[in-house]
């Protein structure tokens, strides 16, 4: 499959749930991508093929809580590199660094083990979806606190109308997404 075919194929398998979790929200549910083995394989291959080349290969993959764990761990396994989880506050047992970010109503904090990456590591940061960009920005900041270089942020879905992808690229983070839901 060529890239446009892959994007259309994946888009076809993303379920839109209207009015969830609140009225007016069009929730983009990626679980159908994971349930079908063929679709899951195409999804993971789309990421892996991008990051196999020497100039794009990360030293480690970091996944954002929680769906970024699913994708990131499998991508890391396929690339034969390590995986580190960026968790919601209070979930990691060892010494952590933390980053708090703003949500629409309130704030949230994510944490990373202090020894998760080394200074100079090239890190691929993975999540399922980019909406406002807050979680991915917090993950980027955490990794950079430890001296890592976040080479790219990767996600299945971009919701550009919510401003996250612009915010992230304006902050110097290159992005790679497979499906764009602008204006839909």
Describe the protein's architecture and organization.
The structure is a single chain. The chain has one domain (3-180): 3-Layer(aba) Sandwich (Rossmann fold), CATH 3.40.50. Helix 1 runs antiparallel to helix 3 (37-51) and helix 3 packs across helix 4. The mean pLDDT is 95. By secondary structure, it is of the alpha/beta class. Helix 5 (134-145) links the parallel strand 8 (129-130) and strand 9 (149-158). The strands form 2 sheets. Strands 3, 4, 5, 6, 7, 8, 9 and 10 form an 8-stranded mixed β-sheet that branches. The chain has a two-stranded antiparallel ribbon with strand order 1-2. The chain is globular. It contains 6 helices and 10 strands, in the order αββααβαβββββαβαβ. GO terms for molecular function: adenine binding; adenine phosphoribosyltransferase activity; AMP binding. Its main location: cytoplasm. Catalyzes a salvage reaction resulting in the formation of AMP, that is energically less costly than de novo synthesis. It catalyses: AMP + diphosphate = 5-phospho-alpha-D-ribose 1-diphosphate + adenine. It is found in: Cytoplasm.
